[in-house]
Amino acid sequence: MEVDSEQRPANHISKPPTGEELRKIKDATDLYRSTSFKLQIDALLPNVRPKYDHAQALEAFLMALHKFLMDLPAVSPQHPLQASRTLSKKGVDVPYVRPLPTEETNWKVSFEKPSEILLAGSWATKTAVKGKDSTKYEVDVAVEMPSTLFQEKDYLNARAFQKRAYYIAVMAAAIKQAKSSLHCEVHYESTSSDPRRTALILRPLADGSSLDFSKMNAQVRIIPYIGHTAIPLQRLSPAKSNLRTAAQNDNAQEDPTPIYNTAFMTMTTPKAHLLSVHALKQSVPAFADALALLRVWANQRGYGLGSRMCVRGFEGKGMWWASVLDLVVHGEEPPPVSLGKAGTKRKPLGKGLSSYQLFKAALDFLARHNFDGEAVFVKAKDGHRFPPGAYSSHEAVFVDSTSSVNLLADIPLSSLDLLRHDAQATLEALDHSTISEDPFQTVFLKECRDIFGRFDVVARVDVSSAEMRKASAHLVADYGSVYNALMATLISTLRRGLGNRAKAIAILHPTSEVRPTSNANPMNPSVVHVGIVLDSEHAFRLVDHGPPAEETESERTKQFREFWGEKAELRRFKDGSIVESVVWDVKNSDERAHIPSMIVRHLLRRHLGIDGDAVQTWQTQFDSVVRLPESITSVYQSSGAAIGFKSALSAFDALVKHIKALDDQFPLAVLNVSPVSPVLRYTDVFVPLAVPVAARSMVPKPASYLPAIDIIIEFEKSARWPDDLRAIQKIKLAFFERLATILMGAVKGLQATVVLGERPERTEIQDEAALDIITADGWSFRARIWHDREATLLDRIINDQPHLPKALRRNTSGEDARERQLALQAREVYTRRFIHSPRHHRAIAALCHKFSAFAGTVRLTKRWFASHWLLRGHVSEEAVELLCAYIFLRMGAPPSSEATPVSSSSAPGSKERGFAQVVEFLKDWDWTTGLVVPLDNADQGNAVPTAPPTSTSRDVAWSIATPFDPQGYMWTSSGPNAVVARRVTALAKATWECLKGMETGASSVKRIFHHPVDHYDFVIELNPALSTRYHQNIDANPSVWASKTKYANAVSKDTPMPVMPGFDPVALLYDDLAYVYADTVLLFYDPLGGDRIGAVWQPNLRDARPFRVLGGFSSTPVRKDASKAKDKEKGLVTLNRDAVYAEVQRIGSGLVAMVVPKSA
C-alpha cells in the first residue's frame, strides 16, 4: 500500500537534506573536527557554566553588599599597630605583609568608603567555568580604595599593601558585625598563599533568607584595588627595586623586585581586565565558548583551583587563559629591532574562528612556545608601558593587552614546562586519533590530576622543617612570605639539578583555603608533591659533567661545587679529559632508574635541609614486588649464580652456536633458532638467574624452581620428512634424541633430556615433544622443532574437501568428527607456538629496546595479574604484554598510515607510571569493543595474517588485535571469559583507588598486590614447603625455607632432588583440578609462589536440577520431606559440595593442607 506524500514524515529517509542543512554539516566538520565533536561541545558547555538565570538571590545580596560598603563610616588615620589592636578586640586580625610594621613606623593607616564598587572577573563577563572538587564559583567584587589613603612613596617597602590589608580588615570587621543583616560568613583567603593578595570571602549562611544564594554554589570575593593615585606607576617597572632590607647598605646595588612589583601592579588591574575581556567577548563571537573549553581543559589537568593535586602557580590566573586567546586573535607587538627577534611576531588569526579552532590555536601556542627564551607582548592599543628589557629579571614573560602585568611573573618555569608538555600531548591526541577514536573524552572529560599516571617520578616532600641554605631577606620580601620563597628556591634548584633529564617538573599541592579573620597569615601545606616527567634519553645517565680542570678557580667551577656539594669531584675520563663531575653510583639497572630521585633527595638535603626521611618515593617499594627476598638472593649469590637478562641472552647465544656447530653430525642443517620466552625479551617478572648444577643442593626446596626457557629450532627444508602427522612426531623424538646425544658429547657439563606431554590429555598428532637442555651454568632451555608441513596436514584433516562449497561437503561423524576436533586443537597449538610466538617475541623485544620503561611496566603488570590470581590460568602473559604495548603505542598513528611512527614523547618514562596507566586503562576499558594494538617490527610487511583458531571458545571476552592477528583471539582464546573480565575491571578500579590513596599516605604499594579472598566460595590452602616457587610469593615467609638443622652451614643428608626444568607442583595441581572440575568450579591461583587456590562454583550449579547420568558434576539428592514434596521435585539433585572438598583433598594429598569453605 502506498503512502500519500503529504503523510510521509519529513525526514532524510524520504527527503534529502536541504542546502542549509548540508552547509551546517560541512561547517561542523570543517570548524569542529567532526559533527559529533561539535555536538559533544554543545552538550558540554551548558554543564560547565553557572545558571545565571537563577541568580536572583545573589543579585539581591550584591545590591545589599554595595549599599553596606558605601555606608561604612570613615576611620581616622592612626598607627598601624594601634589600628591592629583595635580590630583584634573585634576578632579580626589585620593581614599585614612583610616587612611588618613596627613601633618606629612613621606612616599611618585609615579607612574611607570606596570610590567605586564594580562587579569584575569571570562572573561579570559571564565566562565563569565550573571548577574541580566542588569548588565554588567566584563572584569578584572589586572595591576601589580612595586615592586620599595613599601617598607618593607608598610603593616602597609594601606600604600600599599594609594600607590595603587594613582596608580589608575594616570591611571584614564591619561585615562580621552585620552578619545578621547580610546573612553571610566572612573569611580571609590569600591567592597562591601570597599575603599581598589577600581578599575577603563571603559565603551565605544557607538560612533560606532572600539573600541566601547557597544554591548557586558561589562565593563573593571582595578585592580592594588601586585606581588613580599619586603613586608613580613608572616606579613599578619589573627592573626597579622597591624593597629596602636591612641586608642592603646604602652603597650596595639594589636588586630588582620583580615579583613584588608585579603584585603591586596586579592591584591596579581589576577594572582594566574587566574591560579587556568584555571587549574580546563583544568582538569575537566564539571567544566565550573557546575560553570555556580552554578553562575546562586546564582544570582537568590541575591548572586551576582544587582540593587535590594542583600545579603550583596557576591559582587566580583566569586572565592568563583569556590573554592566550587574545594573543591568538589579535597577535603580538613586534619586538624591538635591538633584540634581534623582528621575525618572531605572531600574526593574528582573526575573529571569525570557531570555538574549537580558537581552542586548538591556543593549544598550539602553548605547545610550541619557548617560555624560557621568548617574551610575548600581546597587541596593545597604545603600545606597552615598560620596555622589553625591563622584564629581564623574569623567568617567563607574557604581558597582557592592558600592559599592566607580566601574567607569568609568579608561575615557575617548570610549571610552564608541564603546561607545554600537556598541550603537546593533547594536540597529539587530536591529530593522531581517527574519527572512530573520538578524543573528546580524553581532552575534556578525563581526570588528569592523578599523579602516578601523570608523572614518571613522584616524591612526597615534607617541607615543615625546611630551611633555605642561603636565606635571603630580599628574596623573602620579594615573594611576600618565607614559604613562597622556599617553594621558588625548591623548584629552581630541582630544575637546575635535573637539567635535560626531565621534560617537566611540577610542585603539586591543594590550592589555598579560606581561613578565619582571626588568622592574619595564610595557611601553607606542609606536604607537597614533586612530579617529574622524564626524558628517557638522558634521565638515567650516570655522570653529570661540569667545567674542565683548566677552569678550577673560575666562578663557573665555584658555582658547580657550591651547587652539588660533596658529590662534585674532579675526574679523568677515557678520552683524556679532566672535568668537574657528579657520579651516581648504582649496582644494577633497577637502581639506575632511581637516579632522578637520588638527585632530588641530594639537592633537597643540601639546599633546603630536608632529610631523606622527609622525602618519600615509591620506586623502591615497586621494585620489591618484582625482586626475590634478600635471604634467597644471598643463597643464589653464594652459589655462584649467573644473574640478569643479559646473562640469559648470552647463554642462549652460546647454545645457538653449539647447536649450529654440530650441523655436520646431524641429518639436517639447523636453519634458525628462535627465542620465544619472556626471559629472553626482558619481560619475565623476576630477573632470571641460574645456579650451577653442582651447587643446586644449596638452594632450599621452596626456592628450587628452574624456569624452562622456550626456544624453537627450525631445520632446513627436506623431502625426507614423512607425510603423516604421527610419524612426524616420532621423527621429532628421534631428532631430539640425536641432538641430546651430540650436545652432551660436545659440551662439557651440559645435560639434555627428551620430555613428552604437558597436559593431562594426550594426542598423537599434536606437537608435544621437547628437549630440555641444562647448561653447565644452570640455564635451562626447552627446545621444540618447527616443521611447516604439519600445518598442511592438519588443514587436510580439518577440511578434506577445500574445493567444494561448504554446503556440498559431507558431514563428518563419529571417529572422523573426533579426529577433526583433535586436528583443530593441534592446529591452534601449532599456529600459536610456531607462527605467532616468534613474531610476538620480536615485536615485544623491539618495544623493550625502544622504550626504556616498557619491560619494567610489563613485569609490574604481570605481577599484578598474578597476585590477583589471574595470570596463566585466565590471562596469558602474551595478552598482558599486548595490553602494555597498547599503553605505549596508543598515541601513535595507525600502522597502515604513512605518518611517522609514535615518538616516545607521550610514552611513560618509568615502570611505575606505565603500570598506573595500564591500571587506569583497565578500569575504564569497554572490553566488549575489543582492542587494536599497532605493533610494528621488521617482518610485519611480509607477514600474512593467520586465521584465528576455529576452536576458540565463544565465551572469550577479550579481543586484542594486532597486525598479525586481526581477530584478536590468538592470546585470549583460553580466557578471560566475561566473568573474569568483569573481575579484572573491578580489581583495576580498586587498585586505582589505592594508587590515589597513596597520594595522601592512606595506602601503600604492597596493598595494591594483596588479593582479597572474600568472594571465593572456598579456598584451597596449600603446604608452602612443597611449592618450588614459594620464594616468589608476594608475602613469602622466610621461615618456610630456613634451615631446620642445628648449624646453618650443615650439609643436608636428604637425597638431592633431580633437576626438573619447569617443575611446579602447584601449577600441576591447578591444571589437574581445572581439567577435572571444568564444569563445576572456576579456579584462580597465583602462579608466582601462590599458596592458595580460590574457587567459585559455576553459576548454573547453584540451583537444584533433575538427575541425569553423566551430569558432569558430583551431585546429591535434594533432601526434602517426601510427604510434602511434589512429584516433579522428587528427582532433583544438587551439587555435592562436601564430596568436592573431599575429592580435592584426595587429589592434592600432601600438597593440600586444608579446604576452607566460605563462612555463611
Radius of gyration: 36 Å
Distance between the termini: 65 Å
Q: How much is the average pLDDT? A: 87
**Helix content, binned percent:** 25-40%
Q: Structural class per helix/strand content? A: alpha+beta
Largest sheet: 5 strands, mixed
Q: Reading side by side through the largest sheet, how are the strands ordered?
A: 3-4-7-6-5
Uncertain stretches: 1-12, 247-252, 337-343, 892-904, 938-952
What form results from the Cα inertia axes? Answer: elongated
Report the sheet-strand fraction: 5-15%
If helices are DSSP runs of H or I spanning 4 or more residues, what is the number of helices? Answer: 33
Number of strands: 33
What does this entry look like structurally?
This protein is an alpha+beta fold and 1160 residues long. It has 33 helices and 33 strands. The strands form ten sheets. The chain has a five-stranded mixed β-sheet with strand order 3-4-7-6-5, with helices on both faces. A five-stranded antiparallel β-sheet has the order 8-12-13-11-17. It starts with 18 loop residues before the first helix and ends with a strand.
